[in-house]
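[recover] target loaded
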């Protein structure tokens, strides 16, 4: 596995005056997005379930550029209240639906409860948060970026629940891009490949991810979270003003189809 360093191309000040809301801002991609948006001039409100990690993200950005709310995105009333509070206090020009995740299991081993938990986290929450953000996004002619998953269009073995949820988000993104275009709101999805974040540090994930990079990613490199962040910033910037309803894969050509050898032994 080789790794490339994250790339930064946008000029300082590109996002001056932007107010952004980032779910899952306390780690991984969400943290990288938060840091980059703030560097480019935005104010970011982060959401996550753990205060310590959300606060640690704040140590990486200028004071005054960031605040956070401890909240579970699956608690639809609570998260809608956070969106409304953020919109009232700062306005809302960018919503990044990033919080998400899954467990790796073949479809036969996904119980109704397991299916529901992944759909609630990765699809239902996105619908409700985005709907709650609508009036504020309309007021600012704002943008939504939904963090998706490489494989959303082709499928991904061991991730039936998650891929189904992300496909749902893609459909939602494309539909709202049509419904809300007249209000100047743009919505897009980004599909990272393998991003080496702490969430993937357990043994099963290690196994899957090492294999994914070496055997299922033609460019044989993980996706740096900073590259995802730069694309989010681009989509929020004036340069992205005509981009809507798109899925942008940022995955080194990854494809999770060729064989069960990528899954932990127990799942083959
Ligand atoms: C070429 C393509 C490249 C793509 C690479 C993609 C790599 C992907 C990377 C990522 O997405 S990284 C970010 C990932 N982060 C995580 O995934 C976080 C870890 N996951 C979780 O926190 C949880 O799994 C969850 C998805 C949030 C679910 O948590 P929840 O608290 O809701 O679950 P539980 O209450 O514990 O269980 C609910 C339900 O689910 C069943 N279940 C849980 N784990 C498993 C498992 N490993 N296998 C099977 N079933 C599982 C559990 O039994 C419960 O079911 P019921 O008992 O109710 O039937
Ligand atoms: N890593 C990878 O290879 C890839 C990841 N992705 C997707 O990118 C997104 C970010 O992943 P990544 O940064 O790797 O993972 P992390 O686990 O590092 O980040 C997920 C973040 O979401 C937060 N979160 C999780 N569940 C909830 C919840 N119910 N309510 C509020 N916040 C929540 C977590 O914080 P807390 O636990 O404090 O709530 C955490 O900060 C996810 O949607 C993931 O599926 C897509 C492609 C590849």
């Amino acid at each position: 596995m080789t790794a490339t360093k994250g790339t930064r191309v946008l000029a300082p000040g590109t996002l001056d005056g932007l107010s952004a809301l980032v779910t899952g801002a306390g780690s991984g991609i969400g943290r990288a997005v938060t840091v980059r948006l703030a560097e480019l001039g935005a104010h970011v409100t982060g959401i996550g379930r753990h205060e310590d990690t959300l606060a640690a993200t704040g140590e990486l950005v200028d004071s005054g550029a960031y605040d956070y709310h401890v909240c579970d995105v699956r608690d639809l009333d609570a998260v809608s209240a956070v969106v409304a509070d953020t919109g009232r206090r700062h306005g809302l020009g960018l919503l990044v639906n990033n919080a998400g995740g899954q467990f790796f299991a073949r479809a036969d081993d996904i119980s109704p409860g397991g299916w529901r938990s992944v759909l609630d986290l990765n699809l239902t929450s996105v619908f409700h948060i985005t709907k709650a953000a609508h009036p504020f996004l309309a007021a600012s002619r704002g943008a939504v970026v939904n963090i998706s998953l490489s494989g959303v269009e082709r499928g991904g073995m061991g991730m039936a629940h998650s891929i189904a949820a992300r496909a749902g988000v893609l459909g939602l993104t494309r539909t709202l891009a049509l419904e809300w275009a007249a209000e100047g709101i743009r919505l897009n999805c980004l599909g990272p490949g393998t991003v080496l974040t702490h969430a993937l540090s357990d043994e099963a994930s290690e196994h899957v991810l090492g294999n994914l990079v070496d055997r299922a990613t033609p460019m044989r490199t993980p996706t740096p979270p900073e590259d995802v962040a730069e694309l989010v910033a681009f989509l929020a910037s004036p340069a992205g003003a005509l981009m809507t309803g798109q899925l942008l894969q940022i995955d080194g050509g990854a494809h999770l189809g060729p064989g069960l050898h990528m899954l932990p032994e127990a799942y083959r």
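[recover] notes: Residues 23-24, 26-30, 47-50, 53, 72-74, 98-101, 121, 147, 149, 192, 194-195, 197-200 surround NDP (ligand 2) (CB under 6 Å).
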